[in-house]
Amino acid sequence: MKVETTQAFRSPLAVSLDETLLWLCEMESPIGEEEAICTAVADRLSRRALAAPVRRYGNSIVVPVVRSWEERPHVALVGHLDTVRTENGPARIEGSRLYGAGASDMKSGLAVMIVLAETVSDAIGCDLTLVFYAREEGPFAENELGPVLDQDPDLRHVDMALCLEPSDNKLHLGCMGSLHATVRFDGRTSHSARPWEGDNAVYKAASLLADVGALAPREVKIDGLTYRATTSVTQARDGGRGRNVVPDVFTVNLNHRFTPDTTVAQAKAHVEALVAGRGAITFIDESPAAMPHRDHPIVTKLSESGVRAVEPKQAWTDVARFAALDIAAANFGPGENAQAHQKNESTELALVHQGYAILQRWLMSLEPGDKAPKKQR
């Protein structure tokens, strides 16, 4: 992937974006350790003339940037502060790339949010709120965006939320749901020299493993976008009693990814039908899907603001939390999707500059007529 940039001369805006991203990447913030970066971002943005003071919830903050108190759209830009735990060298810029944990997922998006807050004027066509939150890279139930949405007085009333997950400056609409279930198979131990005296739990799982392996993705088209439902075995483990012991317990993790037109209840029913009583199921993580909202006027304006493509989101993101509140939401970010969670993570700086320009253009293009009636939301 190549995005044209001129490294010999960088505008003051490009310098600000690069330095902000480097500043963020220099602060380590693996999941569960977001307190320092949350405080630093809150302190920095509090120096700007905001519409209201920063509101903090745990290690997450809500930043009211622009308020007109007029009848015009209210947009939220949303990004998580945490990164996965992986191996990275020191944060640094080498040529046209910036290296550091979270450079793509998703501190490049956070850098754009911060610089927009510091440069955007009240003349933009919408009210603007920023949300920086913790614990995204873990279980659905521990993600701090949930409590923030429950407690904050403004967020439930925004007209559109944009999650700045890495997307190479492509607009990713909707998201897949994700369901994790452990399936336990019980047998009886014996010495492996006399296996007929036991009941091998691994063999009891064989037919289910074969059925899952034979499943083809199921395609569903919504708003002209194709989503693919899949089911995969992602972990397998036995009771660990010894190399010469027939195992009496074998457990697999099934990850079912379901399309935006499917509810969590329907997804669970699919897993139950697939297992068909061959093992004991425990559902351990349930993340709902989200519809694409392709025809929402604010989403349409973003699709016309220079995005590199419009595609379905073939993964789960926090747009689903807004969808559950009947708020239109989408994914768009300057980070490189392929770099997410990688060792020695990096991103192309030109994508960050381009992402800022797209979002600025979009925010300036909005107008009161883009505020969708409640029946469309």
Question: What does this molecule look like?
Answer:
The chain is an alpha+beta fold. It has two domains: 12-175 and 290-376, 3-Layer(aba) Sandwich (Aminopeptidase); 177-287, Alpha-Beta Plaits. Helix content is 28%, strand content 26%. The protein is built from ten helices and 18 strands. The strands form four sheets. The protein has an eight-stranded mixed beta sheet, with helices on both faces. It has a five-stranded antiparallel beta sheet with strand order 11-12-14-9-15. A hairpin with a 2-residue loop joins strand 4 (92-94) and strand 5 (97-99). Helix 1 (12-26) crosses helix 3 (103-119) and helix 3 packs across helix 10. The longest helix is centred in the first third of the chain and has 17 residues, at 103-119. It starts with 11 loop residues before the first helix and ends in a 12-residue tail after the last helix. 44% of the residues are buried. Mean pLDDT is 93; it is low at 1-8.
Largest sheet: 8 strands, mixed
Order of strands in the sheet with most strands: 1-2-6-3-7-17-8-16
Structural class: alpha+beta
Low-confidence stretches: 1-8
How many β-strands, per DSSP? 18
User: What's the N-to-C terminus distance?
Assistant: 36 Å
User: What's the CATH topology label of the largest domain?
Assistant: Aminopeptidase
The first-level CATH class of the largest domain is given as Alpha Beta
* Number of separate structural domains: 2
- Number of H- or I-type helical stretches: 10
Tell me the helix content: 25-40%
Please give the radius of gyration in angstroms. 23 Å
Content of β-strand = 25-35%
What is the mean pLDDT?
93
